[in-house]
């Protein structure tokens, strides 16, 4: 499932796991994903809300809303609960949809865009010279494919209005349609 996740999305998942473990939970819940997103990527919420979102106030609000799940007594492997699994599945669909709707139409066969070059330079940790990739095959190898990143995890959360974690966001004026437009169309 995670082969399509960017390194930043994986770091959110790891932080969510660490939060669940620190709470003694047996599973990762959507609220853990939300807290990890706010902690690691507050800029996402600044783009969506007119005011900054304070991590500590969200934690307090989530503690008042959520009901405790099974608390782990040992060192068992922490897994996603059913709600968090659905969030991950929807985040993957959102990533593909954003790619097909906004990214793919900007591309022609074998075209290397400037953001592709900066993406691969960041991934490889070195500069890439486009002159080295004059053939269509070279440019095709460097083209960017769709992947799930932190934006899509947030969209995956916002798709489930019944989750208490999402109610915390919608209470602060964040909606799925606005988030999709601001994060995918401009991301």
CATH topology description of the largest domain: Double Clp-N motif
Fourth-level CATH superfamily of the largest domain: Clp, N-terminal domain
Profile the largest sheet.
Answer: 2 strands, parallel
CATH architecture of the largest domain: Orthogonal Bundle
How does the overall form come out from the CA principal axes?
A: globular
> In oligomeric terms, what are we looking at?
single chain
User: Class of the largest domain, according to the CATH hierarchy?
Assistant: Mainly Alpha
SSE series:
HEHHHEHHHHHH
**Total strand count, please?**
2
On the 0 to 100 scale, the average pLDDT is: 79
Q: Runs with pLDDT <50, length 5+?
A: none
Radius of gyration: 18 Å
Helix content: 55-70%
Number of helices: 10
Given helix and strand content, the structural type is mainly alpha
Q: Tell me the span between the first and last alpha carbons.
A: 23 Å
Q: How many domain modules? A: 2
Strand content: under 5%
Strands of the largest sheet, in order across it? 1-2
Report what the structure shows.
With 187 residues, this protein is mainly α. It folds into 2 domains: 2-106 and 148-184, Clp, N-terminal domain (Double Clp-N motif, Orthogonal Bundle); 108-142, no CATH class. 59% of the residues lie in helices and 2% in strands. It has a two-stranded parallel ribbon with strand order 1-2.
Features:
mainly alpha, 59% helix, single chain, 2 domains, Double Clp-N motif, 187 residues, two-stranded parallel sheet
